[in-house]
Write a structure and sequence with these properties.
Radius of gyration: 26 Å
Oligomer: single chain
Strand content: 5-15%
Helix content: 55-70%
Number of strands: 9
Largest sheet: 5 strands, mixed
Shape: globular
Order of helices and strands: HHHHHHEHEHEEEHEEHHHHHHHHEEHHHH
Length: 484
Amino acid sequence: MNDITAFFAFMRYCLGYKRNISNVVAGMDWQKLYSFASKQAILGHCFYGIERLGKEYSEELKRNPIERELLMTWMGKAQQIHRQNMKVNVVASKLYSMLREDGFRCCILKGQGNALMYPNPYSRTPGDVDVWVNASREDIRVLTQLLAKGKGWVKDESLNHIELEVNGVAVELHSTPAIMNNPVYNNRLQKWLKRNADLQCSNIVSLPDNAGDVAVPTSYFNCVYQLFHLYHHYFYEGVGLRQIVDYYYVVSMLNVDCVMFNSLQRELKYLGLWKFAGAVMYVLHVVLGLSEEKMICPMDVKRGRVFLDEILSGGNFGHYDTRISFGMGPWDFTAIPMAVRVIIALFSSVFLCVLFSAFAGVFSARLKIHPFISTLATQLIIYGLLFFGTSGTPVGSIDSGIKDVFGGRWVLGVINGELVTFPKLIIPAAIAIFVAWFIWNKTTFGKNMYAVGGNAEAASVSGISVFKVTLGVFIMAGIFYGFP
């Protein structure tokens, strides 16, 4: 039995499987298991299994004991995970109660609800608190500022959530739990989320040790939503076995009749998740022993093997992927001073955006393809090139130092005990507006843009090159896209 097979067998034991693992315990390399569990963010979950070994496999442990130093280190990590879970539960409960008192319908996504399905809810490695607030984005912005006042600070904002820190715990307030890049599937997803929002905000559960009551999504909803979450992380960051164990419990807890099961499968196909679901079922079966009777769709062995390879190579959020040599190689710029790296990033961004925008512009100007179609096609080509160039390996996010240069905030001072800041992005945005206004109103090219946009045929008869103007518009747009 090789190491990975032994690790998988032990993970099944931690889940509560009754199969005899005497040979696994007797031959286990405990240091390698610790490293594997650390990489996959399942240290607490595996330590829960180790605590049971003393009673159930004492003879095997005598023949193959865990070194005292390793055991103490592992126990310390498990206690840290336990304490962090308690802290996160308190913040989640208070946050939920406050939002409900203010009249917001909301629910706690993923983490705290998933932990309740574990045999020991304190064994799951906690992350942040994800809250789906059934409100507009503007309301969530106001709510974020109120939460941050005196209790924390706002960290970041993305398309579907605002991140802040409250009492030392990372919190994300979501206007929608998920978005897709494909506009067709995203439209379907948003409609599906809207239809199911009320039920998720009404599914009340109690957190451990009387930490409080919160609303969490139903198992049926999680079968779709958390599958999408895995799908998103697979392509943009990486997936660890912690998320796989979460989804194992979600699927195992699903209890629906035949009609609802068929409805679930139709929704997976409708949302474009069917093939990926088959890959996940394969991983759940091979790693955690999920029976075929419990699967929400047939296994896809081919895609599942690729998915499992990525999980084992990348670890939690892709942070341990050795196929990308951070700190080595010709494409590593970490040794270069930050100012130079910012300049390289800026000019590379502008150059590539202009290149691909011009490519899309040729299709629109010469072949008369609608700009939306040509732009969407270019986006898919870029995704394909990235996937090919990285072998589908998530490469992480932009360096936080570079993000702070362009997307951070200037501190202006303190007024009445509150920190006053100014977003840096306002400056390039103002410059872009002025440049666009100047080109539109003060140059011949701007007048030609107006003419072509109003009536391309009349502009062509007047001697204006519609092709050159259209291509120029795309190139100008690429320059704007490339700047922060």
